[in-house]
Amino acid sequence: MGKAVDKPTSRPPKRRCIFINVPCEVFIDICKFVPPIDLVTLTIVCKKFRWWLLAPSNFGTERIWSASRIAFIPSLKAPPHGISEQCYIFLYLIELGCQFCGAGKTEPRGKLPTEAPVKIYWIFKVRCCKRCLIERSITLTQIKKEKTIRDDSCLAGVPFIEQANRPRIYWKSVVEAADREFANVKEEEVFNWIAKKKTELEHHIKTAKLCEIELPEHPNWNKKAKLKSVICQLSSMVPNDAGRSDHQVEVELRRCPTFKKYFNSTATQLFTEHHWDKFRDIIFNEYNDKRNYAALRAQQYSIFLKVFSLIPINYTTSDPLVQYLFYCPSFRKPPFNYWNQPDDTSLANLIPQLALEAENIASKPKRQPPITSVPGVQKLKLSSRRIFKCKLCAEANWNVLLNYKEVCNHLTTKHGVQKIIDKSMIIVDYLETGKNHLKRNSHLICFFFPLNER
Fold first, then answer.
1. Closest CA to 118 of 109, 137, 134, 131
2. Are 301 and 440 in contact (CB under 8 A)?
3. In whole angstroms, what is the distance from residue 148 CA to residue 119 CA?
4. I need a labelling partner for 358 at 20 to 30 A (CA). Which of 97, 106, 192, 441 fits?
């Protein structure tokens, strides 16, 4: 008995998208609600869409792009006479990157954008990177040297870029087309042909200049205004712990690293709506980090003042708690909620734990130098702060605070000291050390927690 032969299964017919069969009038109405950047995407869906969206002399095409521009880019004015809506907007969408190689294309869901390497050359009606410009353009010097054209007269109507002390730059394909056209012009018609082309070139240059005037910058390039508006919105949204005004909060938001990076940059960065949302979140997080840092410093300063108040009743400057306070784990990370500043009872209960931790640090053979010594404050990078006193003058009640360089200079000039011995000649002011290390006088701490010196 032979094997049963399986009958070939018939494949289901391919489904065709019914959307491509919609009438042109309906398509135009639908596209009124489509952003320009999505209209560009639609041009590669099928030939029909491409024709409707890029037809050079189609009133419906102009209506589609015009309606989309008005709805989604209201800041963009209508194109000058001589350039179509679709061409004008397509070049304007610089976030699409170089139209030839795609360089500089902005990922709409990516990280915050970096510098855009593309530029709009209105005279050539292209948007491209520098590499593609070099590959697709030719200078007048190259044309003459390589003899790429039959007669220089064909350049009469060819658009060009001209810079000071540099040869004119032409678009290669336009030069080639002009050369072919000029070759077909009859000798008796050359003069009229050149005059006509010169007139067209004048109009072309005028249109390009109008485009540059209308668009001195891409709307994404005037990011400073948008950045300011984002900060203004955030100023009323972020926590306000010290009862500051919205303006004061806004000033502090502007000090966030990400804001300063983008606001002070002269490079072109392209923001989509997603990027603006991400930017807002980053600034919000940076602001909260600053709040937490300020809260930590405020708690640490309260602990420091508590220890300072116990000198010299309970402790001396030679006690481990005083010398190694800044390195104690419970000081670095206090056991309190960030936004609950400790009261006297909580601080008093914490002192024994800090004293025990300080003794453990002091007992280690390898330890940080005491913060009451010159090497200790140098380790904290406080040499430039005025926290030092001359020990020789202190005995005569001259207690002027100096930085390390100043106190050394004072010892050399006033006391004639040739070899400075820090331990026996320089005093470190403990209270000023704490204030400077904990940045008690910085604008950040003052912003979130008004100074209430005890």
1. 131
2. yes
3. 27
4. 441
What are the pLDDT digits (tens) for 205-242? 888 888 877 654 454 445 667 777 888 888 878 887 76
Q: 170 has which bridge partners?
A: 138, 160
Q: Secondary structure of the chain: what % helix, strand, coil (to 5)?
A: 55, 5, 40
Please state, in angstroms and rounded to a whole number, the distance separating the CA atoms of residues 360 and 367: 10
Alpha-carbon gap, residue 358 to 89, rounded angstroms: 68
When pLDDT is cut at 50, 70 and 90, the band that residue 1 belongs to is very low
Half-sphere exposure of 124 (CA within 13 A, CB side): 23
| Residue 312: cis peptide before it, omega within 30 degrees of 0 | yes
Taking only the tens place, the pLDDT of each residue in 156-211 is 889 998 887 888 899 999 999 998 988 888 888 888 989 999 999 999 988 888 88
Tell me how far CA of residue 185 lies from CA of 34, 65, 180, in angstroms.
45, 37, 9
Q: Is 416 left (phi over 0), alpha (psi -120 to 50) or beta?
A: left
Question: 3-class DSSP state for residue 170?
Answer: strand
Q: What is the DSSP string of 374-413?
A: HHHHHHTT-TTSS-EEEHHHHTTT----B-HHHHHHHHHH
* Distance of alpha carbon 207 from alpha carbon 240, whole angstroms: 52
Alpha-carbon distance of 101 to 131, in angstroms, equals 9
First-to-final CA distance of the chain: 107
Residue 198 CB contacts under 8 Å (≥ 6 apart), including other chains: 156, 157
User: What does DSSP say about strands 126-129 and 118-121: parallel, antiparallel, or unpaired?
Assistant: antiparallel
Residue positions counted in the chain = 454
pTM above 0.85, yes or no: no
* Amino acid in position 95: E
